[in-house]
Amino acid sequence: MAVYCLLVVAAAILSPLYGTAARQQPSQVVIAVVDDLTRRPLPNADVIDLETGRHRLTNDDGKVTLTWPVTGVLSIRVREVGYKPIERILRAGDATDGTAIFGMSRTAYVIAPVQSTSRCATEADSASRLLSVAVLEQLQQGAGKYEHFRRQYPFDVVVERRTTLDRDSAGIRVHRTRERYSSGTWEEKYRPGNIVMGPDSRFFRVPVLFLSTLADPVFWENHCFVARGVETLNGSRVVRLEFSPSANIRGPDWEGAALLDSATSILKRVEYRVANLGRNRGPQRFEGYSTYRSPSPFVVMPDTTVVVWWLRRAQRDSVWGEPDVGQMLHLHELQFRKEPPRN
Q1: Looking at the domain 135-336, which fold is it?
Q2: How far is CA 285 from the centre of its chain?
């Protein structure tokens, strides 16, 4: 009988504590991301929990659901291509009916004449520097969004490769292949100052400058960037952001330009060539460009890449003639491994 009474008393004592703990269990909050002016939902917005570093992409309705931590406070950063990033500290009382709305305002590029001739923005060239920072932020967002997208929506691709050779008296030869890749192995990791790999001029490998490289912090740390203003590409106005290897890079590395739509900040094209090419192995000149497609709003991925290279050195007066080899890689087929995102 004594044991029974003891258990009842213990239960009576613990019951209020248990109820308090139950009420303190973390609940969920819906983050709704919208255009500040039109109130239109923004899908594929990058919602970052700054405490954990976790990234989530909003759904077609511009929403993502997060769990409140035991502290009851969330530090949130929201990014969307073409919009200014937002950072907010959320508490339970900030979410009306369990929803916190983030209104995003459009990025407006202030285009001013560029006076500097340097390939890197300088303090003296403040107009170019401010524009470069804005464009660079948008390019980083776009490249990073693709990285998160391919993790959240893994896919397989079939790439059609067409190689054109013009090296002997037999004339031009064309070789076609189709290759299958997964979203996790499609693109190779960037290696600063060491992008030409191989033993000699006949056998070498140059990984294409894909989006995974543009999203790699190591790439940004080893390159200089400067926005050169607005130009026209296929009837659309684009901002040109040039990049070149920084002074600490001695070996072969990428230089070129990224072209972003001036209204939406969507990446349209990347032009590139290999700088610091040595004379003992690999190509003597290597250049190309990539274009992009959008499998889901605000997300771009590689579509077509064209590269050409010369195995011989330039003749007098820097006359190169026709390239020895040309390749075109085209995204022939795209298949998502689970339910694909809706456009």
Answers
A1: outer membrane lipoprotein receptor (LolB), chain A (2.50.20)
A2: 27
For 191, the token pair is 């290696």
For 293-312, the three-class secondary structure string (H helix, E strand, C coil) is EEEECCEEEEEEEEEEEECC
Find the distance separating the first CA and the last CA of the chain, reported in whole Å.
Answer: 68
Question: What pTM does this model have?
Answer: 0.74
Rounded Cα distance between 35 and 106, Å, is 8
Domain segments of the chain as ranges: 26-104, 135-336
Considering the domain delimited by 26-104, tell me its CATH architecture: Sandwich (2.60)
Q: What angle do CA 238, 308, 299 make, to 5 degrees?
A: 40
Q: Which residues pair with 70 in a beta bridge?
A: none
Here the contacts of 107-111 (C-beta below 8 Å, separation 24 or greater) are: 107/82, 107/83, 107/134, 107/138, 107/265, 109/134, 109/135, 109/230, 109/239, 109/262, 110/134, 111/229, 111/230, 111/239
Q: Strand pairing partners for 324?
A: none
Mean pLDDT per segment of 10 residues, for the chain of length 343 residues?
37 39 62 93 92 90 92 91 90 83 82 43 48 79 86 92 76 87 84 81 77 84 85 90 89 93 90 85 88 91 92 76 91 89 67
- CA proximity to 309, closest of 191, 114, 168, 163: 163
> In terms of Cα–Cα distance, which of 179, 186, 129 is closest to 154?
186
Is the CB of residue 290 less than 8 Å from the CB of residue 269? yes
